[in-house]
Design goal:
The protein is α/β, with parallel strands linked by helices. It has a domain of about 110 residues: Alpha/Beta hydrolase fold, catalytic domain (Rossmann fold). Helices cover about 40% and strands about 15% of the residues. The protein has eight helices and six strands; from the N terminus they run ααβαβααββαβαβα. A four-stranded parallel β-sheet has the order 1-2-5-6, with helices on both faces. A two-stranded antiparallel ribbon has the order 3-4. Helix 3 links the parallel strand 1 and strand 2. It catalyses: S-hexadecanoyl-L-cysteinyl-[protein] + H2O = L-cysteinyl-[protein] + hexadecanoate + H(+); mycophenolic acid O-acyl-beta-D-glucuronide + H2O = mycophenolate + D-glucuronate + H(+). It comes from Myotis brandtii (Brandt's bat). Pfam families: Abhydrolase_1 (PF00561). Keywords: Hydrolase, Mitochondrion, Transit peptide. GO terms for molecular function: hydrolase activity, hydrolyzing O-glycosyl compounds; mycophenolic acid acyl-glucuronide esterase activity; palmitoyl-(protein) hydrolase activity.
Length: about 220
């Protein structure tokens, strides 16, 4: 959580006098823990522990990539506290969907080896080593197969040149959530990280708009 987006949001919130929490999941970034022992379920517990133990009052959650998946779970679990969501290239069900799209032979080989070496230009090695057990556990947290019981305002930002998570995923999320206050904002250019100046400006303006709207109804 020392990246461009996280720091920009923190600076913006401070300028408004709003509290702001940024954190890495266990085993990620500067957080303690072993990444190889992490699961979507454990990361879901991380988010809920932050909401329960640190956050005070109504919360607007901003989730990037995998965080976009976890923010939906948080909104489902804590509907009284989570009052709005902003997804940045939200990777809901992402790894499970990508794994299931592999040829059956490749899936069997990964299951036998126990590790999926998934190519990525965002890793120094050029691949992410994902445990097969991680994928199987993540299947229990998939959301796009049925209506998603989230009723709060949702804003989904996505670049159409994203080569990691298709922008169609944001359309699927918008279709599945039961909330009627949902906007999908697509940028024609830009990559998965959405960290260019114009991307950050859009993100900050989206947060500002939600704060203004919610301040009239949330006490």
């Amino acid at each position: 959580m020392t990246g461009t987006k996280a720091l920009a949001i923190e600076e913006f919130c401070k300028s408004l006098g709003h509290a702001y929490i940024r954190f890495d999941y266990s085993g990620v970034g500067q957080s303690e823990g072993n990444l190889e022992e992490s699961t979507v379920g454990k990361w879901r517990k991380d988010v809920l522990s932050i909401i329960d133990d640190l956050a005070e009052g109504p919360q607007i959650l901003v989730g990037s990539s995998l965080g976009g998946w976890l923010m939906l779970h948080a909104a489902i679990a804590r509907p009284q506290k989570v009052v709005a969501l902003i997804g940045i290239a939200a990777a809901v069900d992402g790894l499970v969907t990508e794994f299931n799209q592999l040829p059956v032979e490749a899936q069997k080989e990964i299951e036998m080896k126990g590790v999926w070496s998934m190519p990525s230009k965002y890793n120094e090695e050029g691949v992410y080593h994902i445990q097969h057990s991680f994928i199987k556990e993540a299947e229990h947290h998939c959301l796009l197969h049925s209506p998603i019981p989230v009723n709060c305002p949702i804003r989904l930002l996505h670049c159409m040149e994203d080569d990691v998570v298709s922008w169609h995923t944001s359309i699927q999320i918008a279709d599945r959530v039961v909330s009627t206050d949902v906007d999908v904002i697509l940028r024609k250019h830009g990559d998965h990280r959405m960290k260019e100046k114009a991307d950050i400006h859009l993100l900050v303006c989206t947060i500002d708009d939600l704060i203004d709207r919610l301040s009239t109804v949330v006490t």
